[in-house]
Amino acid sequence: MRASLFITCYNDTLFPETGRAVVRLLERLGVELDFHPKQTCCGQMHANTGFRAEAFSQAKRFVRMYQDAEQVVIPSSSCVAMIRDQYPGLMQELGNAELRGQLEALLPRVFELSEFLIDRLGVEDVGAYFPHRVTYHASCHGLRGLHLGERPFRLLAKVRGLRYLPLENMDRCCGFGGTFSVKNGAVSSAMLAVKLQDVLATGAEYCTALDNSCLMHLGGAMHRQYAGMRTIHMAQILANTESSPMETTP
Amino acid sequence: MSQAKGEHAILDPALAPPFPQAALPVLRNPQLRKNVAHAIDVIQAKRGRLVAEKADWQELREAAAAIRAHVLENLEFYLEQFEERCTAAGGHVHWAADADEARQIILEILRQAEATEVIKIKTMTSAEIQLNPFLEAAGIKAYETDLAEIILQLGEQEPSHIVVPALHINRSQVREIFARRMGLSHLSDDPKELTNAARAYLRQKFLSVPAAISGANFLVAETGGVAVVESEGNGRMCLTLPRTMITLAGIEKVLPRFQDLEVVLQLLARSATGERMNPYTSLWTGVTPGDGPQNFHVVLLDNGRTSILARPKHRQTLKCIRCAACMNACPVYRQTGGHAYGSVYPGPIGAILTPQLAQMHHAQSLPFASSLCGACYEVCPVKINIPEVLLELRSEVVNQERSTAGRVFDPLYLGLRVAHLIFSRAWIFHLAQRLGRIGLRFFTRKDGWIHALPSAGGKWTQTRDLRGLPPQTFHAWWAARAREGK
To answer: Residues of B with CB below 8 A from A38's CB?
Structure first.
């Protein structure tokens, strides 16, 4: 099976280890990956901050770039939600009929990582080994935008050695919200403080998610507070095996 | 006390400070945050249980959303039908284009009734038009009769929630207000004793005041009737004892048929207070000779609503049945409470309703007062896609602001313009990554983390570290790997 990897702008820049893990994981599962070298951003930051024309031009770029892809896999639930929930409106408002048609044809072929593994590849046990205590943060876009439901838990349940610790108030936002974290920095921090209490109370070694943006937020606070927990994208857990252990990151 | 001196909440969108600023005193007030979070958690838990027991909850939501959407598509028809039937039943219907007109109409009715005092059922619409201070200035004293509203009125505080307006005040604070204002120094903070104090205070008003003002949860076009739901029975008293009764209602409150109440009342009680049915549901139509008020008026308030109605994407805002489930579910509201929104309508619905009622002249910070987590949309009983409207309004605010002088060098506006350039071409993106790595090296500590950034970045690093940029981007790794033949 072939798939095109859209890594997303912030994973490319800030979390390349997540991208490397996706490649290792999917190639191990027999997926032939390609990577469009001219990819940049899905436009989420601009769309969510009210810069609609800019978001549209990035959306247009994405649709044109991937219109011939067999399927696109994206290890970021908020970027997939952007594409699924916001692209149609943007195209309706600012696009032409050709673009709308291209988007409509492309959308069913765009997958978030856990969707791709479970719905497309039909695997839950990806052969991973991760001997740690882990809690899972259901990012808002994964939870309410993509309705990922049980998928992340089914994947984690099959990871050997992993002990899953449930998170209280799992459906509560961590307060990131993109530019919200800066425009409303104090409120965002108050939300983060409350979320972090629940996350730390699990006693896990790692907090995982399917979106590095929430993890950047939670991880940034953990690092600031010497909290003794770290964040890790689920792709990195799933890529990890006994014979080929995880890359270490600062 | 929940508010120190000089921190009195301003709920006038024209005067209130922007949300990020208005939120600060609350964030620094542990008592207030605890009161808000506790009250919300209690309601949320009750709501969760009662929604879960309804197997047809999603179908009910669909039905209510369809009814409300249909009303908004045909609002003129249903309002005229309501006017005709209410008038036929002996009521008087008045149309108010804005807050000022509504206040004048109400004042005129009260003057004709020779009322110097008026009792009120809880109505957020009257708070929207700032009716109490207006009447006071005109020599008419308004007495709130809802327990929470009494607490606010006596404590000289502002509502922070549309269903439980005093949720930011705990019972020891209520005791303090009652003891001080009712002269009951012996009062304890036992809820029963506090309720009895309020009851004694209210009975005098119910028996002596000749006029009452209510809001409306719904207007029924088919019958010309009005529906009010409440928990304490104070509304029932206001509806039966005074000679003159005035109902102030936003024009969007109309429902086509009496039987539509079956759908919306089920949703409202469960969503608002976590009850299967609210304790008191009052329905009345016009005037009944010899029973209840003999002089009945309905004031239909526009105050910006038709301008919302005119815009298809924004119209859904007016589907709202004021249950407040969105604010109870909102992680932002849970931290800030209602006063930070600078409006009588706080929380997610306030964040979309307030700037639109102000015709985008005020409250431009409110559409940004959300992390877009979607919890509001998930719980909304009439399926208002609040995040979608927030995004619409954000785009309008940006269009208003982007060319103004003050924003040209605003770090956020500048940043987003530069970011767009960066994302428009891969080579610029890759160049920016390289330059970023060089630039951020200066701020990156030996442990590979950034602890402090200047400008807008400082808003991040005030509470969070940021990992420094790794030496190799993913795309560079991919390219190198391809060169090595994997």
So the answer is: 426
Average pLDDT over residues B115-129: 96
- Helix H or strand E segment including B377: helix B375-379
Interchain proximity A140–B448, CB inside 8 Å = no
pLDDT at B1 over 50: no
Q: What H or E segment, with its residue span, contains residue B282?
A: strand B280-285
Two tokens, residue B425: 């071409």
Q: What share of chain A is helix, strand, coil (3-state, %, to 5)?
A: 55, 10, 35
DSSP B278: -
The structural domains of chain B, with segments of one domain joined by +, span 19-306, 408-483
State whether B463 and A192 contact (CB < 8 Å).
yes
pLDDT of residue B240: 86
Joined together, the tokens standing for residue B478 give: 């991919």
| A104 contact partners, CB below 8 Å, separation of at least 6 | none
Residue contact B335–A187, C-beta within 8 A = yes
Amino acid type, A58 = Q
Residues ≥6 apart with Cβ < 8 Å to B151:
B157, B166, B169, B174, B177, B178
Nearest to B462 among A37, A51, A189 (CB): A189
Q: Band the pLDDT of A248: cuts 50, 70, 90.
A: low
**Span B319-347, mean pLDDT?**
98
Candidates 3.90.1200, 2.60.40, 3.30.1460, 3.40.50; CATH matching A133-239: 3.40.50
Q: Of all residues in chain B, what percent are helix, strand and coil, respectively (each to 5)?
A: 55, 10, 35
- B2 pLDDT tier (thresholds 50, 70, 90): very low
Q: Which H or E run includes B420?
A: helix B411-424
Q: Say what the pLDDT of residue A247 is.
A: 61
Angle A97-106/A52-66 helices, nearest 10 degrees? 60
Q: Which CATH fold topology does B19-306 show? A: Rossmann fold (3.40.50)
d(CA B82, CA B35): 41
CA–CA separation, B443 and B428 (whole Å) = 23
Q: What pLDDT sits at residue B5?
A: 41
- What's the start-to-end Cα distance of chain B, in Å? 67
How many residue pairs from chains A and B have C-beta atoms closer than 8 A?
203
Orientation of helix B191-208 relative to helix B171-182, angle to 10° = 40
Where are the strands (E) in B85-153, listed by range?
Answer: 92-96, 117-120, 141-144
Neighbouring-strand partners of residue B245: B212, B296
Residue range(s) in chain A whose domain bears CATH number 3.40.50: 133-239
Interface contact B460-A185, CB threshold 8 A? yes
User: Is this complex scored with an ipTM above 0.90?
Assistant: yes
Nearest to A186 among B20, B368, B425 (CB): B20
Alpha-carbon distance of B327 to B43, in angstroms, equals 11
CA distance B358 to B371: 23
User: Per-residue pLDDT tens for A226-237?
Assistant: 999 999 999 999
Q: Which amino acid is residue B56, in one-letter code?
A: D
Supply φ then ψ for residue A43, to 5 degrees. Answer: 100, 5
Would you list the DSSP string of A60-87?
A: HHHHHHHTT-S-EEES-HHHHHIIIIIH
Burial of A127 (0-12, 13-18, 19+ CB in 10 A): middle
pLDDT tens digits, one per residue of B96-120: 999 999 999 999 999 999 999 999 9
Q: Do B371 and A183 touch (CB under 8 A)?
A: no
Residue B239 · residue B245 · CB < 8 Å: yes
| pLDDT range class, residue B7, cuts 50, 70, 90 | low
More confident call, B406 vs B171 = B171
State if pTM tops 0.90: yes
